[in-house]
Amino acid sequence: MSLFKSLTNTSIVTNTTNGDGTNAPEKTAAAIGATALIQSLLEITAFDACTKKRNAFTTLSVISNARDLCKNIHTRIEAVDNSGLGEWGAFKEYTAAIDPLEELLFKLVDWLEKESDKFLNEYTTIGETITFVNVWEENRTELKTCYSDSEALQTGASGTSLAYADLQKYDDRCLISALCEEISETRFEGPKLLAKDAKAATPSATLIKQLAKVAHGIPAKIPPSIDQPSMTLAAKCAMIVQGALHLGDNATDHDTKIAFSASLVWVKALSLLKNLSTHASKPAELVFDEIQKEYEEFLVFLQNMVAEIPAEYLDIKLSVKNIKRPYYARTVELAQQCHKLVKYFVKAKKSSDLLHSLEGALKAAIDALEATTSAMGILALLEYKDENPEGVADAMDKFAEAEKRVKACFETYTMTADASGLSAKMKAALEKDKAKVTKMRERFAKTKKQGKVPDSIDKEATFTAVLWSTLPAADAASITEWRLELGESPNVKQISLHTQVKDIIDEVGALRFVKGPLVPPVQVDGA
Length: 527
Known about the structure:
This protein is mainly α. The chain has helices at about 5-10, 35-50, 55-80, 90-115, 125-150, 165-185, 205-220, 230-250, 255-260, 265-280, 290-305, 310-320, 330-345, 355-375, 390-410, 415-445, 465-470; strands at about 480-485, 495, 510-515.
């Protein structure tokens, strides 16, 4: 039986007999509607768990417990089938067990969904890699809760479970082995190590080769007696070093590639793995707290090494083209001010000390643009007034907040002139927007021509005009390929596109535009 079938098989061997005295067949789970939802959830979780790589054994144990609980419910249901009229004990037991088991499996489904897209070698920034490690640790805590819940429901269920600590330790050992194998087989060459930098190294040795050699030996040095905190820390150290190697080999950002070509990051990574190896094999020689401190310092070093430009910067640049009057000039000005901030940030080598203020300014700016997009649906171009209706006022507030945050960032960056001149520039942009919209309104308020084609078709219009208004801009060049037909075959009548709508308004039959040359009807001999 496959692992999936084993985890989802909730059938039980019945104790009842047939009329001829033979044993009745297995009671199949499909015949029991009360646990149909549980069976479906077991299939979903088992399918996901069978493809998981990290925390796999703990997850499979939770599902195995849930399967046994479901079997226990089926056993109680069979007892109800064979009980007398006054016997309600088994009924109360199985009906009380269904809801908690369903909730446990729903919780496990949610947990598996959060784990489904976690692949260390898919991340492209240091921040994402560090977050990956933190999420892994948080998710393990949630999985422990699921395991504890499944154990708490086990009263009366068949089977015994392994201790959680043993399962988790085995999962961590598998993860560490896989990560150390990746580290030891890395193709990344890294910087050369000079002989003067490490007495034990030969001049031709590289830091990455040493790193690979140390990583290769770590799994064998982890004893069965290692405590869980040390095992968890070992997994985190292996993850962050492998994540750094992946970035060093695959980073596309120029600054990131430069950062990982420096020796210092790999000197620190090598030191971390060497000390981890010593702690695993000789915990008395190098205690847990020292490794934990070195790991945390390595994270801080990585974060300060390259600070990434916030993603909102690109969003701002791409969003400006979607903004109409009466917000366009302000949007352009705000984007230009944000650009100044980012240029300073890059010039300052993306120092992490400057990142927080920049993040606040760019976030406020993108909030203003999003509020503006919503307001454009409320405020028509020719209806602009000084008093702002609800929705428009929200956009104005967001612009004010963005201006405040951008100014604060200028001050943090000691860009005094830009900070003091920002208010005047934003006010000038506002006046420019007002002037353009006011000019538009005054100019077209005097004309008798409609500023917009109405939704209903003007009876005076020609069908050429009607066709033109319906064609997408990309198809405008094809207007000469269309014709107008009235009626159904064989009584189709061709209508000139120069005809006015009013001239055929009383005609009977379907009217349609047809693309392509007119094909004359085929003449049949003798017809």
